[in-house]
Amino acid sequence: MAILDKIVKPMIAGLGITSKRLGHSRPTVMYPEDKREQFPRTRWRHVLTRHDDGLEKCIGCSLCAGACPARCIYVDAGENTEENRLSPGERHAVRYEINMLRCIFCGYCQDACPTGAIVLRKDFELANYDREEFIFTKEMLLEPALSERSK
Amino acid sequence: MAEYKLLLKHSDDPATQTLAGYKKAGGYSGLAKALKMERQAVIDEVKTSGLRGRGGAGFPSWIKWNGLPKEKVKPHYVLCNADEGEPGTFKDKMLMETAPFQLIEGMTIAGFAVQGDVGYIYIRGEFIDAAKALRKAIDEAYANNLLGKNILGTDFSYDLHIHLGAGSYECGEESALMSSLMGERGMPRLKFPHAPLPTVSGVWERPTLINNVESYSCVPHIIDKGGEWYATLGASTKNSRGTKIFSVSGHVNKPGNYEIEFGTPLKELLEMAGGVKGGKLKACIPGGSSMPVIKPDAVDVAIIGYEEMGEVKSMVGSGGCMFFNEHTDIVMLAWRTAHFYANESCGKCTPCREGTRWMVQIMDRIVAGNGQKGDMELLTEVANNVEGRSFCALGDAAAWPIKAFIRQFPEEFEYWIEHGKSPVTSKEALALVP
Amino acid sequence: MAAATDIQTVNIIVNGIELAVPKGELVVEAVKRLGLEIPIFCYHPRLKPVGMCRMCLVETGMKNPQDGTIRMMPKPAAACTLPVSEGLVINTESDALKKDRKGVLEFLLINHPLDCPICDRGGECPLQNNTLFYGPATSRFIEQKRHNVKAYPLSDYVTLDLERCIQCARCIRFTEEISGDSQLAFRFRGNKTHPITFNETKFTSKFSGNVIEICPVGALTNRKYRFRARPWDLQTSEAVCLNCSNGCNIWFDHRAGKVVRINARTNEAINEEWTCDKGKFGHDYYNDEKRLETPFARTGDELQKADYATVYAKLLEAFHGDNTGMILGDSLSNETYITAQNFFTGQLGSHNIDYRFSANQAKGASTVDNSIASLELAKTTLVFGTHLADDLPIVFLRVRKGWFNQGTQVILATDRSDEVSEFAAHTLVYKPGTEATIAKAFAGQVSVADAAAKCGISEPELQAAITAAAGATVITTTSLNHEAAEVLKALDGNFNAYPTGANERGAQLALACDGLSALEQLKKAANGELSALWVVGVDLFSVGLPREEVIRALENVDFLAVQDSRRTETFYYASVALPMTLPAEQDGSYTNCEGTTQQMKAIIPPVGQAKPAWRVFEELSIRVNPRMPFSQASEILASAPAFA
Fold this sequence. Notes:
The structure holds three protein chains of three kinds. By secondary structure, chain A is an alpha+beta fold. Chain A has a domain at 46-150: Alpha-Beta Plaits (2-Layer Sandwich). Chain A has helices spanning 2-21, 63-67, 108-112, 138-141, 146-150, and strands at 46-48, 73-79, 91-99, 118-120, 135-136. A three-stranded antiparallel beta sheet of chain A has the order 2-3-5. Chain A has a two-stranded antiparallel sheet with strand order 1-4. Chain A is elongated. The model of chain A has no long low-confidence stretch (mean pLDDT 91). Chain B is globular and about 75 Å long. Chain B has three domains: 14-232, NADH-ubiquinone oxidoreductase 51kDa subunit (Rossmann fold, 3-Layer(aba) Sandwich); 243-325, Ubiquitin-like (UB roll) (Roll); 330-432, de novo design (two linked rop proteins) (Up-down Bundle), CATH 1.20.1440. Chain B contains 18 helices and eight strands. Chain C has five domains: 4-93, Ubiquitin-like (UB roll) (Roll); 104-222, Alpha-Beta Plaits; 231-287, Single Sheet (N-terminal domain of TfIIb), CATH 2.20.25.90; 296-361 and 505-643, Rossmann fold (3-Layer(aba) Sandwich); 373-498, Dimethylsulfoxide Reductase, domain 2 (3-Layer(aba) Sandwich). Helices cover 27% and strands 20% of the residues of chain C. In chain C, strand 12 and strand 13 (249-255) form a beta hairpin. In chain C, helix 8 packs across helix 19 and helix 16 (518-526) crosses helix 17 (547-556). The longest helix of chain C has 16 residues, at 95-110. The mean pLDDT of chain C is 92. Classes of the chains: A alpha+beta, B alpha/beta, C alpha/beta. The interface between B and C is large, with 35 and 41 residues.
C-alpha cells in the first residue's frame, strides 16, 4: 500500500500534468535556427536611417551624445559641400561611433535626435569575441540606401 | 467758425515770397521787436501764447525753449524738423514753399531767445521745391543782414543752413533726425530719462532746440501781436491755443490745407473742404496715418483740440486729416498702412522691426484670401506687443492704426477672413481696384 | 580713482526692496546687487548701452519724496539704458512683464531659423537660454520666415549667418568702441537690417574673434571651430595664451586630447574679456602634424628614432665648458629657464646660455613702470617705435580704452602709420633707423629742426608732438633701438619697454645672461668656434636672421642638439633631438610683459614621449651630479629667488 501511495500515485499525477501539457504550444524556440518575433517597440541595436533619396538623416549635431547617460556615443561633424553631400543642410556626421559595451539601450538618443536619424531596432544579436568589435562605427550603423536594399 | 488764416495769410500771394513783399505784408516786425526784448521775455511770450508743438506730440514749446542753458558754455543749435513724412500731411511743404521767410523769421527769433549760434532746417529729401524756395529766401535774408553777423545791427549773430534728408520717415523722429544730421545712420537715440534731453545734449552733444516748421512759423506772429493775443485763439478748448493747419485729403471735394482755430468742430473742417465726395462718409483719420481711425458718429461730435480729440479716442497729430467715403475698403486701407510702416521701420528695435513685418504678412494673407479664424486677435496681440515696447514712437504709430481699424471695423475684417474677398462691392469701389 | 567715500548713492526700490546704489548706475546692473537677473541681448557691460533688443523691459515708477506714494509709469522701460535716480521704483517680475518678454522673444524667434542642432552656438546660446526661461513654448507665426545669406565667410576666422542674426549690434559696437576699426555696420533698414562689412569686403580686424564670443546667437561663428564639437562634447580648462607677451587669460577647450577652440577668460587686470585673433585662432600648433613625438639621434646622414638614454649619453658627452652654448626660445616656462640655467652653468660649466637674438634686447633697459590696467588711466601716452596692435594687442586695447573713455592724449612715433594713428593726437612717421635721433629730440638733446630734417618729419609737427608729450607715459618694446630706449627712459614720465616674447620677461628674470648672447653664439658657431650648440624651443629660421647665416652656423657646429615640440627646420640639422611638451601639456608658470607670473596646469596629455624641458634638464642634471631632483614645477619656481 505504502508503495502505491508514495510512489505510483505521484508518478501518475506527474504524468497527468505532463500529458495535460502535451496539448499546449511550445514556448521554447530553437534559437539560433528559429528567432522569436520581437515586440514592436523593442530597443536593441541602433540604426542610422536615411531619407528616401539616399541622404543620411544624421546631421552630426551630437544631441544623442549629449543625451546619452552612458556617454557611449562619439560624433565628429563635418560640412557638406556640393561635391560631398551626405545629408541635407550644412552639416553631416564624419564619425559616428557607439560603444555597445557601455550602451544601456535606454533609447534617449532616439528621443533626442531632431531628425529621427538614430533609431533602436530589433536586432538583438550583439555578441562578439573581440572587445574592439563592440565599437560600432558609422558604416556599421548606417542602413543601406533604398536603391541598394532592393538588390 | 470759418478758416482763420494766420500762417497761411499770404500763401496765395507769390509776392510775399520775396523779402520786400514779405516785409510789406508785415513780415520781420516780429524779429525787430524780439531783438529789442530780453531773451527771457521772448520765451515768456511763447509761454503766454500757450503754443504747443505742431509736429504731432503737442508738447508745450516754451518748456523746450526754456530748457537750454542760460549760461552758454558750448554753442547752441536750433533745429527745424521739416522732414514731414506722415502720410496725409502736407502743411510744412506748403509753409516752406509759400512762406519761407515766415519760417526763417521764426527760427531767427528762436535762435535769439535761446542764444543759438547755428540753425539747421532738416528737409525731407523729396521736398526739392521747398528746399529751393528756402535756399532763395535764406540767401536774400543774408544779403539784407537778417541772417549772419550782427543781425539788424545788434550783437546777435546767427547762421542758418539747409540739410536735405535722404527720404526716411524715421528721420522725422527728433533724435533720429539729429543722428542723420550728424551724418550717422538715421536711427533714434536714447531719450530722457535714459539720456539727457536734447536741450542739454542734442546734436553734436550740444544744447539743441528742435521744433516743427509750423511751430516756428507761429513764432513771428506770437511776438508781433503778443502772446496774450495768440492765446485768445482757440480759447474755447481746454489747453490748445492758436491755429492749426489741417491737410485735408481723401474723398473730399476740395482737398487742401485749411488753417483753423482750435475749438473748431471736425465736421466744419469737412464742410470747408467741400464735403465728402462720391458717397457717404465712412471713416476719418484726423491726424495723419499713424493716428487711430474714427467713425462718422465721432466725426460729428469731435472738436479739434489736443485734449478734445482724445474724447473720441484719436489725436490731432500732425494734422493730416483724411476722409474716406463708403466705397473704401477698410481692410485694404489697413493693409496699405501696415506696408508703409513696415517699410519705414528703421530696424533698430525688435518689436518694430519684427512686429511690423509680421503684421504685414498677416494682412497680406488676409487680402490674398487666406485669412484664418483668429487672425484679428493675433493682429491685435502683435500690435499690443509693438505698442509701447518699441524704442521710439514709430512702433506706436504702426500699432495704433491697425488696432483702431480692427476695433472700429471688425465686421469688415471678419468678412475678408471668412469669404476671402472685399465686403465693399460697389461699382465705385471696384473701379479703384488696380 | 575716486575714493569710496566720493561715490554718491541714491535710494531705489527694486521689487519692494529698498537699496542704495551708486548714482547713475544702470538698472540692469543695479538689480544684480539683489541677485536678480534681467534678461538681455544687446546690453554688454563693456559697450555703451543702446536699448535695441527690448528684452530687458522693466516696470518703472517714481516715489514721491513728500508723501511716499509711488506712481508707476504706463509703459515699461528698457533697464539697460535707464540710469538710477533718487526714488526710482523698479519691478522686474510681474505678469505684464512676463507677457512683454514672451512678446519680444516671439518677435526674435519668428524670423530665426531655429537650426540649433547644427548651430555652433547651440548649447551655449543666450537666445536659447532666454527662450527657455522667459519665452513662449510655441509660435503663432505661420508665415514664411525671412531668408537671408547663411554661412557667409566674412573672413578667414569668422562665418556670418544672417538668418540667425537678431540685430543686437553688439558686433558693430565692438568694432566701433573697443577695437576701433569700425569694420562692421548695419545695412538696409526695417526687417532687412543686417550687420555686414562695408561693401562685403573681408573682415580684417585684428580683434575679430571677440565678436564671435559676444554675439548672443550663432550669427557670427568661428570658422576654425565650425562643426568641430558641441559645447557638451568639450572639456574646458583655464589657461594662459602664450602667443605673445600679454599673457591673456583664456579658456582652453579641448576634446579627446585635441585643442578645438580658445575663448577669452575674464581677467580685469590683463585682457578684461578680450583676445586678439593671433591668440584666439593661433593655437593650431598643438594639433600640428609635425609634432615631434620621440627622441632622435643622427646616424650618418639619417636622423633616426632613439630612446632618451642614448640621447642623454650623447648630450652629456658633447656639452662641457664655455666652448658650448645653449639658445632658448622666449616662450618657454619659467621652470625651464631656471633648470636650464642651473644645469648648463652649474653642472656643465658654460655661461653661454641666452635667449636674445637682437642687440637691442639689453637686459637693463627693459624697465616696466606701468601695469597693463593702469595704462588706461594715463593722461598722455607716447607710443614709440612699436606697432601696438601687432606687438602687444591687449596693451593696444588698453591705450585705446583710455583714449575712448577718458580722453588720453596719445602720441605715436613709428616707422609707418598703424591702428594707433587712427586715434593718436600726433602721429610721427620717421624714417626707419632714426629712432635714436627722434628720441633725443623728445629729450631735448638734439634741436627739433635737425631731428625733423633727419627723420623726415615736418618741424611744426614734431615740435607740437614734443610739447604734447611732456611727462608722457612711454610705451615701447624691448626690441627698440638701445640708444633710443636709454634716452626715453631718462624722460620725466613712466617708461615701459614691454617684452614681446611670450615669456621673455621670465627669461630676463631667470637667466643670468653673463655669457654670449644667442646672436653671438650663432656667429661663433658659424666660425666653427663652438663645439656644441643646444637649441631649446625656437626655430632659428624664424627669428629674423638671414638664412645663410643660420645655415652656416648650424653646419659648422660639431654637435647640434634640438629640443622642440615639432619638427622645425632647425630639427633637420640636429645631431640629436628631443621632443618637448607644449604649455598646455605641462605644468608651468609664465611671466607676462607687465611682470605678472601666471600658472598653467597640464590640460591635455603630452604627445608621444614628449617631456617638459625642465624635466629633461633635471634628469640630465642628476646624471652629472646625483641628488634629489625636482619632481614638480611648483618646487622649481619656489626655489628661484627671482620669482619669490
